[in-house]
Amino acid sequence: IGRAEVRQVFRIRGIGYIAGCYMRTGVARRNASARIARNGKLLNTGPIGSLKHLQENVREVKTGFEFGVSIEGWNDYAPDDIIEFFVSERVEV
């Protein structure tokens, strides 16, 4: 549903690392999952831990905005990482 680029990594005491990102396309939603890729190689997939815009918790971030995101179980963010946001839906056949 969306694709973002990590621009900077922040360390928050008591929380861990937060990726400061720029939303390239689509949207980032708090109830979505995310994939982290570096140099075209998939590093991790997991649920969104937090999604913030201007230090406030938000439900979604749209194209063209900067935001902070943490992904559960992952702290090894680096500038230029790509984060892809997706939702899984069950489809009946």
Write the layout of secondary structure elements.
Layout lengths: L1 E11 L3 E14 L3 E6 L2 E13 L2 E2 L2 E3 L3 E6 L10 E5 L7
Antiparallel strand pairs: 1-2, 1-8, 2-6, 2-7, 3-4, 3-8, 4-5, 4-7
Fold and architecture overview:
This protein has 93 residues and is mainly beta. It is built from no helices and 8 strands. It has a 6-stranded antiparallel beta barrel. A hairpin with a 3-residue loop joins strand 1 and strand 2. The chain is globular. The protein starts with a strand and ends in a 7-residue tail after the last strand. The model has no long low-confidence stretch (mean pLDDT 92).
- The helicity comes to under 10%
Radius of gyration: 13 Å
Spatially, the strands of the biggest sheet line up as 1-2-7-4-3-8
* Global morphology: globular
How many angstroms separate the termini? 23 Å
Class from secondary-structure proportions: mainly beta
**Mean pLDDT level:** 92
N to C succession of SSEs: EEEEEEEE
Low-confidence stretches: none
Count, helices: 0
Report the strand count.
8
**What percent strand?**
over 45%
Q: Mind summarizing the main beta sheet?
A: 6 strands, antiparallel, barrel
Which key phrases capture this entry?
mainly beta; 93 residues; 65% strand; globular; 8 strands
